[in-house]
Design a protein that fits this description.
Blueprint lengths: L1 H13 L2 H31 L1 H17 L6 H14 L3 H28 L1 H5 L10 H28 L7 H13 L1
Helix pairs in contact: 2-3, 3-7, 4-5, 4-7, 5-7, 5-8
């Protein structure tokens, strides 16, 4: 009964883009929170408090690393959409090339130092009887490597966001540019 009412209201609000997007935003916020509340006790029981704490440190840090993208993905997506709509393939090629170069540089700036200096960075966190500096260093290394898929995802999403309407010739030009790099 309640589910049917909810579905009927959802169908009514589906036509209103503001309400629909707000609803999706609320779901996007509450679903992970609810899952975290459900699974935290299970994780603690299976992993133990020390290992769970290290895991939470790693995942929290990876989440914060998204800030290091500096809005580059949104900027690239904006210009890809703009240049696609005006069929300005030269500008489109330029923005995509610079976007890829920027993501490679971001990766080099963040990933390499984090990985190389992980033993020194591990000393920032005080080891305990159950967690050694080596374990903390390993976590920092894993976090640095976890930044790679984050950059790849953001780079690919920003570039492909509006390329779906582009001509196949554009993809050939993009492929040629990538091979030339």
């Amino acid at each position: 009964m309640i589910l049917n009412i909810f579905i009927a209201k959802l169908q009514k609000y589906k036509e209103n883009i503001i309400v629909r997007n707000s609803l999706y935003g609320a779901i996007q916020f509450f679903a992970p929170t609810l899952l975290l509340l459900i699974f935290t006790p299970i994780f603690i029981q299976r992993m133990g408090t020390t290992q769970y704490g290290l895991w939470m440190l790693a995942t929290s840090t990876l989440g914060l690393m998204g800030i290091a993208e500096f809005g580059l993905g949104t900027t690239i997506a904006k210009f890809v959409a703009e240049f696609s709509s005006t069929n300005d393939n030269k500008a489109l090629s330029t923005i995509i090339s610079w976007g890829l170069i920027s993501y490679v540089l971001l990766g080099a700036i963040f990933i390499v130092p984090l990985y190389v200096f992980s033993p020194r960075l591990a000393t920032i966190f005080k080891p305990s009887e159950t967690v050694s500096i080596e374990q903390i260093g390993d976590i920092v290394r894993i976090m640095s490597l976890g930044f790679i898929p984050l950059l790849l995802r953001n780079g690919a999403m920003s570039i492909l966001k509006d390329c779906k309407n582009s001509k196949p010739r554009f993809f050939l030009q993009l492929g040629t540019k990538l091979v030339a790099m």
